Structures are given as structure tokens and as C-alpha cells.
Amino acid sequence: MRTVIVVLVVVGCGLLFRLLRYPCVPGRARFTFSFGAEGRAARRALSDARGERRSAYEKARRSEAEAERRWSERIAPYRKRVQELHAARAALPKPGQGRAVRPKRWLSPLELHEHVLLFMTEEASDGAGRPSVDERLPLAGLGVEFGHTRDNVHIRVTRPDGTCRTEHYPRDREVAAYDMVEDIRNQVLRHEDFLRRLEARDAELAAETKRAEADLAQAGEAARPEVDTVREAARTRRARADALLRAARDGWKADAGGLRPWR
Question: How many C-beta atoms surround the C-beta of residue 132 within 10 A?
Fold first, then answer.
């Protein structure tokens, strides 16, 4: 019994599929099921039109893909150059804190690094005996002066906005304070030179990137007409195949009783 049901289901599905591809009214069933010359010719015309449409769409797809591939290959060197320049700009060094500068000459709470001057707190922040940062000053535009009175010496740091911060030391630290001021002044000059060179290199890369992007756009436009021509030919091929299939469906509708094939 189960075998019979399976056979009936398979046969029913086959009939339904055939009716979907070759619909008809009862009086014109010969066009769908007949092995006569008239039925075979009508079905072949519709089947050939469908096959032609599938082939046309596949050829159009391949031709467009091939044209896009050639276009991509032509502009690939220009795109690679743009990507390299963007990567070079991204890889430019970022002024962070930098390495410690002559730490043996530091005077608490001042610590000098390649790109910043730190004012440290007296209290440990992590339980390990190391002080925490109280203020972090980038060296660009930083001013520093050494001064002294009868009782002490001092280091005055002037921020770029004109505000100051002064640290005082005993007279016996005069030489050490002067050395610290000297180190800060020298490092400020080095840091500002670093920034100038960094800005110059960034500007150079930005200009090169702009030129490379213009070259890329020009190369893309120069190679685009071939792609457009291929796409237009593909559209024409698809449109012709669609028209042939519509004509075949119209012919089937007229011959097989007014039912149009679903595709």
C-alpha cells in the first residue's frame, strides 16, 4: 500500500510539474501530453525559448563578470598604491610618552620623557611604592626656568596657555635643579623638531595620497567604457531572449487554450 501511495505521489508531482511548464485546458491536452507532431513541436518551441533564455542570461553573466575582472586588474596597481599610502600615514609614529630621558638626573616630583614632562604625586597609587601621575604635560610649547633665592632654588614650568607650576628645592640641589632645567629645555627642542618632521611627512603622504587617488579615479574612468559596452550587450542579449520567450508563451497560450506558461 505504501508503495502505491509513493508511486501515486511521484506520478502526481510529475503531472503537476508538466502542467506548470505546459498548461492547457482539457480540450487542448494534446499539446501537453501528446506524442504527436503538433504537440511535440509546440512543446519544443516553448522549451527551446526557455533554454535560449537560460543560456543568454548565463552568457551575459559571464561576460559581465569577465569585464569587471579585467577592469579590476587594470586599476589594481593604482588601488594598491593608494592602500600603501593610507597604511604609511596610519603607521606614522604617534607622540605618546616615549622613553625616559636621563632618569638619573630627575628631581622629584619631575620625570622627563621623550614627549612629556610628568609631575608625580608623593603617594603610591598601586601599593607597590611607585607614585602616580599628578599632571602630564606634552613638551610642545612648554617653557621652563631655573630660579633661586637666598633659601632655595626652584624650577618653574610654564604651560602653553601661560599658566605656571613651580617646584622648590633646597639650596644644596642647585646644580641638580639647573641640570634638570637644561634637560627639559633640550628635550622640548627635540620634541618640537620631531613634531615638525612628523607633520611634514604626514603632509607629504597626504599630497601623494591625493595624487594617487586621482590616478586611480582616472584609470577607473578610462577602463569603464569597455565594461559599459559589455553590460549594454548583455542587456540586449537578455532582452532578446526575454522577447523570444514571451513570443513562445504567447504562441502556447493561443494554441493550448488560453493558459500562459508561468515562466
Answer: 12
DSSP 67-127: HHHHHHHHHHHHHHHHHHHHHHHHTS----S-SBS-GGG--TTEEEBSSEEEEEEEEESSS
Nearest Cα to Cα of residue 170 among 145, 152, 147: 152
Beta pairing class for 110-112 and 116-124: antiparallel
Residue 166, strand partner residues:
156
Q: Which three cell numbers stand for residue 145?
A: 626656568
Percent of the chain at pLDDT > 70 equals 76
Q: What is the 3-state secondary structure (H, E, C) of 116-165?
A: EEEEEEEEECCCCCCEEEEEEEECCCCEEEEEECCCEEEEEEECCCCCEE
DSSP code, position 263 = -
pLDDT-based confidence at residue 48 (cuts at 50, 70, 90): confident
What SS3 state is found at 239?
helix
pLDDT at residue 53, as a whole number: 84
* d(C-alpha 177, C-alpha 154), whole Å: 7
Q: Which residues of 155-177 are buried (b: 16+ CB within 10 A; e: fewer)?
A: bebeeeeeeeeebebeeebeeeb
Give the pLDDT confidence of 55-90 residue by residue, as tens digits: 999 999 999 999 999 999 999 999 999 999 999 999
Question: Are 115 and 224 a contacting pair, CB within 8 Å?
Answer: no
Sign of CA dihedral 121, 159, 105, 95: positive
In this prediction, residue 256 carries a pLDDT of 60
Task: Check residue 72 and give its pLDDT.
Answer: 93
Q: Yes or no: say if 99 and 259 are a contact pair by the CB < 8 Å rule.
A: no
Residue 125: pLDDT band with limits 50, 70, 90:
very low
